[in-house]
Write a structure and sequence with these properties.
Layout (H helix, E strand, L loop, with lengths): L3 E7 L5 H14 L4 E5 L5 H11 L8 H25 L3 E5 L2 H11 L4 H12 L6 E6 L2 H10 L12 H17 L4 E5 L4 H19 L8
Parallel strand pairs: 1-3, 1-4, 2-3, 4-5
Helix pairs in contact: 1-8, 2-3, 3-5, 4-5, 4-7
Length: 217
């Protein structure tokens, strides 16, 4: 029995977490056995690593240190939570995964792609998502949304506009190169419109891989 691994990606403030939690509610209503996790985080060890990564007090963190910390947090959640859930047929909804590393540390930090690939492989042992949603929108809109939420920027959110533009461009390039599993959502659209588009793609893709969207609990 195999599960259904779904990841949600995008720049900070794109609304991916809102959409991931909306899907969580949909799965619950349909009695689909599932879990929701976030990266970095999701385990005691990974949440402690998350605190280090996002703390503004660590503004001098080296890019390689950042890459390795993300990889460490990911390795723990993959082995402790994600892989076991998939093994018993659960749907896994993951808020950020390996594409975040490629976009932020690869394109954003300009680290060597071979180094990025090696870190991802080490952390995941080859576990790839079945389906990835990329929520794309302008950086101006993303920043406005974060401000409207009244949330202070963490260490990564506080990066320069140029950094975030490289990340956005990187995401779009990654999506183009991995079109077989990526769905790019226009995150400027109303929340409900995005929600409907996500569900339509989920429903179609689940049928293609033989994952039943009912009676799974």
């Amino acid at each position: 029995m195999s599960g259904f691994f779904i990841t949600f990606e995008g720049v900070d403030g794109c609304g991916k977490t809102t959409q991931a939690k909306s899907l969580l509610k949909k799965f619950s209503a349909l009695n689909i056995n599932h879990i929701y996790v976030r990266e970095p985080g999701g385990t005691v060890i990974s949440e402690n690593v998350r605190a280090l990564l996002l703390d503004n007090a660590h503004a001098n963190m080296h890019a390689r240190t950042e890459l390795l910390l993300f990889a460490a947090a990911r390795a723990q959640i993959v082995e402790e939570v994600i892989r076991p859930a998939l093994a018993v047929g659960k749907a896994v909804i993951c808020d950020r995964y390996t594409d975040s590393t490629a976009a932020f540390q690869g394109y954003g930090r300009a680290l060597d792609i071979q180094m990025i690939d090696a870190a991802i492989q080490l952390a995941t042992n080859g576990l790839h998502p079945d389906l990835t949603f990329l929520f794309d929108l302008s950086l101006e809109t993303a920043k406005q949304r974060r401000e409207n939420a009244g949330k202070s920027d963490d260490r990564l959110e506080a990066e320069t506009l140029a950094f975030h533009q490289r990340v956005r461009n990187g995401y779009l390039q990654i999506a183009q190169e991995n079109f077989h599993r990526f769905v790019v959502i226009d995150a400027e659209n109303p929340v409900k419109t995005q929600e409907n588009e996500v569900w339509e793609k989920i429903y179609t893709f689940a049928k293609d891989i033989g994952f039943e969207l009912e009676n799974k609990k």
